[in-house]
Amino acid sequence: MRYKIIRDESLEKGPFRVTTLAYDYLLARKSGEAVLNFHWHPSGKSHNKQPHIHVGTNELANDSVLTNKIHVPTGRVSVEQVLRAAIELGVQPIIPDWADRLNKTEAPFLEHRTWG
Question: What is the pTM of this model?
Answer without folding.
Answer: 0.86
